[in-house]
Amino acid sequence: MSEQPWAAEQPDRALPSIFPPIPPAPPKRRWPWVWAVLGVVLVVLAGAVVWLAIDTSSGEPPVQRAEETRVTQVKTIDGHSALDLPVDWRELPEDYRGENAVLTYGQVFQERYLMVLTDEKADFSDFADYEDTAILLMAEMPFDTPKVGQPTPVRIGTREAVRYEVSGVFEGEPCVFWFTLVNGERRYHQVITWTLESRRGSAAPALEKVAATFREI
User: Where are the membrane-spanning stretches (predicted)?
Assistant: First the structure.
């Protein structure tokens, strides 16, 4: 089956806006701006998942091409970090970027997506505090009965990190997210990857491999 252009590449099609309400803020948090900004990001992520699932549902993903096995370094827009992405990954349209996201890319026909958020260490007392704030947000994701898994300690390069799996149903579409929280040398980072539950088997290893390439520069 020939590859079809996605909405961002079709000038006569407008991008949809399928977004649920922004989740409420948690009580008496010391950094309400963190909640507000990340809350908007997650609403954007959820909307992107649903639209992209619909937009690519007309056919199976194309057969893996040779360029999908090659990678290239992609720097975040703030210039503080980078990842190695397969060359067929594309930057997502502006409508699907959170306002404090420093990188938002996807492998659209495989329904694999990635977003990087970066925060200043001065805004948190320590990495545990950063993790607690992120957990509160995960529990309020705009899904039907979101489920937050147990933390898994990982190493991203030489840096301490922890990964959470968050699953749920949005607009009838089961989705799964992985939040990798990285204690960088100079900043804290969230490497967020996601896919449809139906694509978990093939997407999870590929997304984990991409997340593992994250590094500060």
Answer: 33-54
